[in-house]
Design brief:
By secondary structure, the protein is mostly beta strands. It is 2% helix and 66% strand. A hairpin with a 4-residue loop joins β7 and β8. The chain has an 8-stranded antiparallel beta barrel with strand order 1-2-3-4-7-8-10-11. An 8-stranded antiparallel beta barrel has the order 12-13-14-15-16-17-19-20. The protein has one domain: AttH-like domain (AttH-like fold, Beta Barrel), CATH 2.40.370.
Length: 303
Amino acid sequence: MDTDTLHEFGNHPDWNESFYFNFYDRKADIFAFMRMGLKPNRNEKASFCFFIMPDGSLIGTTGHEPVSTTELKVRDLRFERITPEKKWHLTFSGTMDKHTGKTNVQEQVSFELDWESLNQVFDYRECVTGMKEKISEEIATQHFEQFGKATGRLAIGGKDHAIIGLGERDHSWGVRDWNAPKMWIWLTCQFSEKSALNATKLVMDAGEVDAGFIHIKGRNVPLIEVNIETKWDPSGNPRGLEMTIDDKEGKTHNVMAEVMRPAVLPFPGRDGKNLSLLHENLARYTMKSEVGYGVSEYLIRTR
């Protein structure tokens, strides 16, 4: 089955199909994350694309436009599928805002990147069935994950970077209400081109759902339980975690992570009352003797 096609949409106003990519280039010390989502029943295509730079500054942009076509393009950002479940081409050319914490300035940004997978697509349904699948319906009925490698070029403010970085992508479709969860935690780490993990804990009013995989010895092994103890700073921001994950083969894995650089994106509700904050943090992970890098993502409903 080709999971990378666009699917027939349902009739819920917040039916959504989304594509997400991230990567971290260790040498350049640049972390990137980007997403494109289509909500055809609201006539809306939305995107964001951000880079966390070595100095901690955040450079990025968001965009919205009507769904005139199903092309994965919003303003200056484009995702092009080259080989299903294997290779994508990601491009951008335009301006982005640079957030330094004091002032915002505009930077000229362009990139041409090839994103190529390093494992088979993983279906969250291998972890989530029955009542847990019912609990997840307001987030995404279908959810696929894959880790891989990004290569190409990135230019920011006239400075060129040759990019070689490991990262994660996901593709989901179904209802997506950013304010439905009380919280979700989505953790991905790439230790090498042969070792990676993905762990999710979704906290809804009706209960919790755990999902994900650990990739070892060339195989995706589904997770059945994820226990996370988060370390919070005085302002209520996640700054690290200790985690145990139990896989479907009866093994337990202990993982630690520390946030290297934070980024926070607001997701206000359409009613003007609800607000969720997405903490999309670059994190350093350790598991036994392995050290890797990836995302420590927390979506927290604040009101």
